[in-house]
Specification:
Blueprint (H helix, E strand, L loop, with lengths): L1 H20 L1 H21 L24 H12 L4 H24 L7 H8 L4 H4 L14 H14 L4
């Protein structure tokens, strides 16, 4: 009801401005009202969570805060199940770099020059999730937590044991 009253008031105001000042003033007022409407709509959108609840940790040890690279990797992976766009633009490239390093160090395989061999070593189940030539935007939905755990476990298996 309140929204209908606001729309009716805006239309009456536009009509009055048109009568008094003409078309250019109506256009300026309409643009201002549209901007106010967008600002009001934006104010109603809740802020995003700091991290998906499924990946939130209660007690992060203080010593982990000293490792910004670890935090970047954790953030990239933690947001992956939320958005396929994030996965394809942030997480997949990160996992691809980690996979390339693991394959080069442990198996002497260049991920980009020998994708068939890389696919064989990584496994058919994980390859679609780390393939650097992945489906991109418009592909399948973001992988779930179970898929991400499988990818991380496979990377750990491929990484050299020191």
């Amino acid at each position: 009801m309140r929204a209908a009253a606001l729309v009716a008031a805006a239309l009456c105001g536009l009509a009055a401005v048109h009568i008094v000042a003409g078309t250019p003033a109506v256009l300026a007022l309409a643009a201002a009202l549209a901007a106010l409407g967008l600002l009001a709509a934006r104010a109603r959108i809740p802020p995003p969570p700091s991290r998906p609840a499924a990946l939130r940790t209660r007690d992060e040890p203080d010593e982990l805060r000293e490792y910004p690279s670890y935090r970047r990797v954790r953030e990239a992976v933690s947001w992956a199940p939320v958005s396929a766009r994030h996965y394809d633009s942030v997480t997949r490239p990160l996992l691809g770099r980690l996979l390339a390093a693991a394959l080069a160090e442990r198996h002497g395989v260049d991920l980009h020059r020998e994708p068939a061999r890389a696919r064989e070593l990584v496994g058919e189940d994980v390859w679609p999730l780390v393939d650097p030539r992945g489906p991109g935007l418009g592909g399948p939905p973001a992988p779930g937590l179970a898929d991400l755990r499988t990818v991380v476990n496979r990377l750990e298996e491929l990484w050299p044991n020191d």
